[in-house]
Amino acid sequence: MSKKVSICMITYNHEKYIAQAVESVISQKTNFDYELVIGEDNSKDNTRKILIEFQKKYPDKIHLLLHDQNIGMHNNFFQTYLACSGKYIALL
Asked: What is the pLDDT of residues 25-61, one digit of tens each?
């Protein structure tokens, strides 16, 4: 069953800020079901590692798209957007 809201986020080399961005979504109080869909574009820093730890902690909320090679901002966004299953999509 799809979620009410999908939060669509893309990232590349955001090691310093990605935890804050994810926590800003996870900490929201809602009365509806949501998912956080993150397209990680083969970062060169620890962004991917941080996201995998968050996904382990919140497997029912976080869906990761982990690209094996850098596909660029536009393709990353498009693929991440298409992976969203919510009735509504919020961009972060």
From this structure: 999 999 999 999 999 999 999 999 999 999 999 999 9
Which residues contact residue 13 at a Cβ distance below 8 angstroms, ignoring those fewer than 6 apart? 43, 44, 45, 47
DSSP 21-57: HHHHHHT---SS-EEEEEEE---SSSHHHHHHHHHHH
Give the chain's length: 92
Q: Is 59 strand, coil or helix?
A: coil
Q: Which two tokens stand for residue 90?
A: 């919020």
pTM higher than 0.90, yes or no? yes
